[in-house]
């Protein structure tokens, strides 16, 4: 069924001074093959030293976010037949490179945890479950689905320019709790991002929307946060 | 990761007034364009423009133009500095220069607007 060339960025911190590209031929063995299938084929059959992250292989765990032909996407849900060849695969931009396609996500995750990504409930707690109306529940659609793959943040020029900027992913996840009718932590959360490295670094460049494999809209969430902050102040 | 809480100005003000000044500028610019190019039919003679500028209402109009244009430009540059300059001392230096330049241009522009007199009618 033919072959596809993968041009992959390689970097071994123990051997290489700087990254370089290496070409591999991937055999198309069945229709519907994904980029991750190609990477697995290379690693299992041609070159066991190729390093990349993967886990669920169905777009749920967020492990295999990669820069594929210049766009951040998940390797496991990107069809090979939709891509121009050669397929150029690089690690997520702007994140510190560890090895080959693996980047250091510590800073990205720290920024997420800084947002208190958990429900801060009203006290005293109810005896049974906290109820939420179907309308209020619907406000969380398009927010709760984030899988923390980092595609959005690493596609954002503001994130590249300011290493302390919280980034679209963390901000979308703050908004997810601010609009949750069961949560009372809005004020303390909004405090965290009314800052030079918070929402005001977003200039609606919209790369994050294009990058998000779950079809979420971080720019809109940031817009909601900006409005909330401005109306609290003026 | 340490968040920087030291600045009293967080960005909410800058963000809101960049938008407000943008809208005001669009209106003023539109009006300026219509007056200069459509109504006065492209007459750019010294006397015509000087006579207009001598009128107090036009002085107020051009004073607003000056103020909003300079604010919008100064604030835009401030936002760029906030985006890209993270060294605290360099940032302070550039932000001070930004303000200084805006104030100097504002004073100079105000002086020009205020000093305009109607030209003496040629005899
Ligand atoms: S918002 Fe989308 S792109 Fe960003 S981390 Fe969540 S799932 Fe990934």
What is the CATH architecture term of the largest domain in chain A? Orthogonal Bundle
Into which percentage range does the β-strand content of chain A fall?
Answer: 5-15%
- Spatial shape of chain A: elongated
What class would the helix/strand composition of chain B place it in?
A: mainly alpha
Proportion of residues in helical segments of chain B: over 70%
Q: Cα-atom Rg of chain A, whole angstroms?
A: 20 Å
Task: Spell out the CATH superfamily of chain B.
Answer: Fumarate reductase/succinate dehydrogenase, transmembrane subunit
Q: Secondary-structure element sequence of chain A?
A: EEHEEEEEHHHHHHH
Please render the helix and strand layout as text.
The complex is a heterodimer of chains A (234) and B (123).
Chain A: E1 3-10, E2 20-27, H1 35-46, E3 65-68, E4 71-74, E5 87-90, E6 97-99, E7 102-103, H2 106-114, H3 134-138, H4 157-161, H5 167-178, H6 186-193, H7 207-211, H8 218-233
Parallel strand pairs in A: 1-5
Antiparallel strand pairs in A: 1-2, 3-4, 3-5, 6-7
Chain B: H1 12-39, H2 46-54, H3 56-84, H4 88-115
Helix pairs in contact in B: 1-3, 3-4
The complex binds iron/sulfur cluster.
Describe the model.
The complex is a heterodimer of chains A (about 230) and B (about 120). Chain A is elongated, with a radius of gyration of 20 Å. Chain A has a 5-stranded mixed β-sheet with strand order 2-1-5-3-4, with helices on one face. Chain A is of the alpha+beta class and about 230 residues long. Chain A has 8 helices and 7 strands, in the order E-E-H-E-E-E-E-E-H-H-H-H-H-H-H. Chain A has helices at about 35-45, 105-115, 135-140, 155-160, 165-180, 185-195, 205-210, 220-234, and strands at about 5-10, 20-25, 65-70, 70-75, 85-90, 95-100, 100-105. Chain A folds into 2 domains: about 5-105, Ubiquitin-like (UB roll) (Roll); about 105-230, Fumarate Reductase Iron-sulfur Protein, Chain B, domain 2, CATH 1.10.1060.10. By secondary structure, chain B is mostly helical. Chain B contains 4 helices and no strands. Chain B has one domain (about 15-115): Up-down Bundle (3 helical TM bundles of succinate and fumarate reductases), CATH 1.20.1300.10. Helix content of chain B is about 75%, strand content about 0%. Mean pLDDT of chain B is about 85; it is low at about 1-10. In chain B, helix 3 (about 55-85) packs antiparallel against helix 4 (about 90-115). The interface of A and B includes residues 192, 196, 200, 203 and 233 of A.
């Amino acid at each position: 069924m033919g072959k596809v060339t993968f041009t992959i960025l390689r970097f071994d911190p123990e051997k290489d001074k700087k990254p370089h590209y290496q070409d591999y031929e991937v055999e198309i063995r069945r229709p519907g093959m994904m980029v991750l299938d190609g990477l697995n084929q290379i690693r299992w059959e041609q070159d066991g030293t190729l390093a990349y992250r993967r886990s669920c292989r169905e777009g749920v765990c967020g492990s295999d976010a990669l820069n594929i032909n210049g766009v951040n996407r998940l390797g496991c849900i990107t069809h090979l037949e939709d891509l121009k060849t050669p397929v150029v695969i690089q690690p997520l931009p702007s994140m510190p490179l560890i090895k080959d396609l693996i980047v250091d996500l510590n800073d990205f995750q720290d920024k997420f945890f800084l947002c208190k990504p958990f429900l801060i409930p009203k006290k005293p707690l109810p005896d049974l479950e906290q109820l939420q109306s179907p309308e209020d529940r619907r406000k969380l659609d398009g927010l709760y689905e984030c899988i923390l793959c980092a595609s959005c943040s690493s596609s954002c020029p503001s994130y590249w320019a300011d290493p302390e900027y919280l980034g679209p992913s963390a901000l979308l996840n703050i908004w997810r709790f601010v609009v949750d009718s069961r949560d009372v932590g809005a004020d303390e959360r909004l405090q965290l991002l009314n800052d030079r490295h918070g929402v005001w670094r977003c200039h609606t460049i919209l790369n994050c929307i294009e990058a998000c494999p779950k079809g979420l809209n971080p720019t809109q969430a940031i817009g909601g946060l900006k409005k909330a902050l401005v109306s609290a102040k003026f | 990761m340490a968040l920087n809480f030291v600045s009293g100005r967080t960005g909410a003000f800058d963000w809101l007034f960049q938008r407000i000044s943008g809208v005001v500028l669009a209106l003023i610019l539109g009006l300026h364009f219509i007056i200069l190019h459509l109504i006065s039919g492209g007459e750019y003679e010294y006397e015509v423009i000087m006579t207009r500028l001598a009128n107090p209402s036009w002085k107020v109009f051009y004073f607003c133009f000056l103020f909003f244009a300079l604010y919008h430009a100064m604030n835009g540059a401030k936002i760029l500095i906030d985006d890209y300059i993270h060294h605290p001392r360099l940032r302070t230096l550039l932000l001070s220069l930004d303000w200084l330049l805006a104030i100097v241009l504002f004073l100079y522009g105000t002086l020009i607007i205020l000093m305009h007199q109607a030209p003496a009618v040629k005899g």
